[in-house]
Amino acid sequence: MTGPRLVSILRQGSYLIASIHTALDDTEMTAFQHDLVERIGRDRARGVVIDVAALDVLDSFASWTLRTIGEVARLRGAVTVVVGIQPEVAFAMVALGMDTGSVRTALDLEEGLAFLDRVVGPRRPATATRGGPA
């Protein structure tokens, strides 16, 4: 029997939405990184939203891993935005001198998707059809 899922990665058109449901240890965070980067190529994602709203702590390794995911995604042709950083987590990150580097942030999933729509263009349907208008 398996326990609850720690993360989920869902495809929405040309975007991937990755939600972290609970705090991850370093090994789990590294596995999440590898899974997400693999999915970017497999799904030909143009944008990635990483939702961390469920986290009440974001340690230096997790922060570094999010930056790394963003940079690797960029090299693979996808824009990354981190959403849902809780106020207490943001205060702690600033106090400790941690940040997300060049990876953009947004308040929530809705704003993250709107940001990607502005930067990479509207989401395309999950299943593209061939031919002209009906």
UniProtKB/TrEMBL annotation:
Residues 5-116 form the STAS domain. This is RsbT antagonist protein RsbS. It comes from Geodermatophilus dictyosporus. Pfam families: STAS. It comes from the Bacteria. PROSITE patterns: STAS (PS50801).
